[in-house]
């Protein structure tokens, strides 16, 4: 028997500040992100979005690199110097990881688009994305560059 | 009985005036991006520490330049659609939202055009 302080009933103030405007205590709430136990798939969801925004922003570096190459020797030397510096490399390593993470995360989305992968295998796919992105980034930076 | 006009029935669109293009284009460019990005990672690795002459020599190959431009275009469409959703999800002030959506388009098209023109210039001898 559910009592009134269990989901979907939440006491006012249980989710701090979020429902200050509500006049009624014990009003049923729709499922809210703060109610659920944190799961790896939830983290993966927001990381997919964050890496997407990161990749978006990072295209500015790609454009700089290509435009500098098209403009002059001096401009390209500055760009290559930046990406050869440890700080530039740090950005590139981060970009490589974000790319592989977003790519593997995208493959998970294809599985879901096909109507599959909603069972417990979703956790396996989440961890495989994390592991795969780290391994692929490692391969690129430890063995290829 | 239906009150829909013949045109409305043919286009199959409701009052939103659009259908699944956003979803479909996002998935289509996502699929294209998989091989294109793997190619691009390989390409960039071969050009680490390159000088300009090496860049010109590499992009003199029309296949490399062609796939590089495909990558840029597919990525630009994909990232524009993606950030559009992010903006629509988090920005609820109408004026700010429309301004950011415009800037999003400017950035995506700007990236696509500058990169493409740069690649073509390199391809035709720098």
UniProtKB/TrEMBL annotation, chain A:
Q: Does the keyword Disulfide bond apply?
A: no
User: So which cofactors does this thing need?
Assistant: heme
- Cellular localization per UniProt: Membrane
Q: How is the cofactor bound?
A: The heme is bound between the two transmembrane subunits.
Chief location of this protein within or outside the cell = membrane
Taxonomically, the superkingdom here is Bacteria
Residue ranges spanning the membrane: these are 90-111, 123-144
**What GO molecular function annotations does the UniProt record carry, in alphabetical order?**
electron transfer activity; metal ion binding
Q: Does the keyword Lipid biosynthesis apply?
A: no
Q: Which family does it belong to?
A: Belongs to the cytochrome b560 family.
Record PANTHER family = SUCCINATE DEHYDROGENASE CYTOCHROME B560 SUBUNIT (PTHR10978), SUCCINATE DEHYDROGENASE CYTOCHROME B560 SUBUNIT, MITOCHONDRIAL (PTHR10978:SF5)
Task: State whether it acts alone or in a complex, and with which partners, per the record.
Answer: Part of an enzyme complex containing four subunits: a flavoprotein, an iron-sulfur protein, plus two membrane-anchoring proteins, SdhC and SdhD. The complex can form homotrimers.
Tell me the function of this protein.
Answer: Membrane-anchoring subunit of succinate dehydrogenase (SDH).
Name under which the protein is recorded? Succinate dehydrogenase cytochrome b556 subunit
In which organism is this protein found? Maritalea mobilis
Automatic annotation (TrEMBL), chain B:
| Source organism, top-level taxon | Bacteria
Question: Where does this polypeptide localize?
Answer: Membrane
InterPro entries hit by this protein? SQR/QFR_C/D, Succ_DH_anchor, SuccDH_FuR_B_TM-su
Record keywords: Transmembrane helix included? yes
Q: Which coenzymes or cofactors are required?
A: heme
Its placement in the membrane is given as: Multi-pass membrane protein
Which UniProt key words apply to this protein? Answer: Electron transport, Heme, Iron, Membrane, Metal-binding, Transmembrane, Transmembrane helix, Transport, Tricarboxylic acid cycle
Pathway entry: Carbohydrate metabolism; tricarboxylic acid cycle
Query: Listed GO molecular functions?
Result: heme binding; metal ion binding
Subunit notes for this chain? Part of an enzyme complex containing four subunits: a flavoprotein, an iron-sulfur protein, plus two membrane-anchoring proteins, SdhC and SdhD.
According to its UniProt entry, the function of this protein is described as:
Membrane-anchoring subunit of succinate dehydrogenase (SDH).
| Protein name, as recorded | Succinate dehydrogenase hydrophobic membrane anchor subunit
